[in-house]
Amino acid sequence: MPASPLGDDQGLGGVHIKYLRHCPRQLWLYTRGYRPEGGSDLVAFGEVVSETTFTRRRDVDLGEARIDWVTAGAVIHETKSSRSPSPAHDAQVRHYCLLLERRGVNVRGGTVHYPLIRRTTDVPWNEEAREAAETAEDEARAVIASAEPPDRQTRAACRGCSYLDYCWGD
């Protein structure tokens, strides 16, 4: 089997898990260097929301992942510019919980903040969540190791995705 584009020395980050749950094809393309996010107005908007919301927080850089912030008691916080909660966001927080737990931190769970709609969702951290996070890692590694890209989703599911032109362009 050919070497994984992820590389043996680089772990899975939150973006890998988020892309896996959003669209496996997006994950596959991302790990091969296709990065249209830089030209995406939606991504730029998300960065502005992140930079102007919760300005007193400090990112936690784990090397392979960057957590928006962690509060006392080891509660992970992520900020999203989306107007609707997504299972991909919860999966990303569970992945961060797993990464911190592997570093010896007694994690309590996480919260995803949606400032544009003034909502939060809590992400529990328990045995079931740990298993889901480990399964997501296995699935992500399988997608990344695949020689062929996963099938594209329906065009309607791709609305707003920065990879839309690549997957659906003529």
From TrEMBL:
It comes from the Bacteria. Pfam families: Cas_Cas4. Residues 14-168 form the DUF83 domain. InterPro entries: Dna2/Cas4_DUF83 (IPR022765), PDDEXK-like_dom_sf (IPR011604). PANTHER family: CRISPR-ASSOCIATED EXONUCLEASE CAS4. This is Dna2/Cas4 domain-containing protein.
